[in-house]
Amino acid sequence: MENRKLQDKFLRREIGNTCVCFNLRRAARLVTQKFDKALRPSGLKANQFSILMASYDQKGTLLTRMAKALGMERTTLTRNLAHLEKLEMVTIRPGQDRRERIITITEKGADSLEKALPLWQKAQRDIVNIMGREKRREMLSGLCEVGRRL
Fold first, then answer.
1. Calpha distance 150→144 (Å, rounded)
2. pLDDT tens per residue, range 83-120
């Protein structure tokens, strides 16, 4: 039993120090909290901001395409879109194939983005100032590469 506790403690420390998934998800949660707090005056959360941005300046985008672009499961995106639709920030209509859903941002959604944009820009600057421009560039490059390969 004593040996197992030592091994468990070692594994927890090792995973905390080296696991890509653990550290990426931890950082993502902390950054999301920062953006959620910054965006609070706009009434949007970071996830909603991202979804509205993905539909902005489009005449409509397929839910499947949006889910892929955002790296989200369709079911998760559908739940988030249902909430935005209730808030009248997006419309969801059937596509040519009845199984398809076309997402379009509304005027209210676009107005919310306009209000949120300066708040997002400040949060973005804060994060870049913490990590530095070069590390941000390297991180984004690495994340894009992982996204392409996965």
1. 10
2. 999 999 999 999 888 889 999 999 999 999 999 999 99
Give 70's Cβ-side CA count (13 Å radius): 26
Spatial CA neighbour of 33 closest among 123, 98, 112: 123
- Residue 146 CA to residue 136 CA, distance in Å, equals 15
- Taking a C-beta distance cutoff of 8 angstroms, is the pair 102, 92 a contact? yes
Return d(Cα 100, Cα 86) in angstroms, integer: 20
Distance CA 30, CA 36 (A): 10
What does the alpha-carbon distance between residue 97 and residue 75 come to, in Å, rounded to a whole number? 18
pTM above 0.90, yes or no: no
For residue 94, the cross-strand partners are 101
Residues linked to residue 101 through DSSP beta bridges, in sequence order: 94
- Say how far apart CA 133 and CA 64 lie, in whole Å: 33
Helix ranges (H only) for 19-131 are 20-39, 46-55, 63-70, 74-86, 107-131
**CA-atom Rg of the chain in angstroms:** 19
> Residues of the chain whose pLDDT is less than 50?
none
Q: How far apart are the first and last CA of the chain?
A: 39
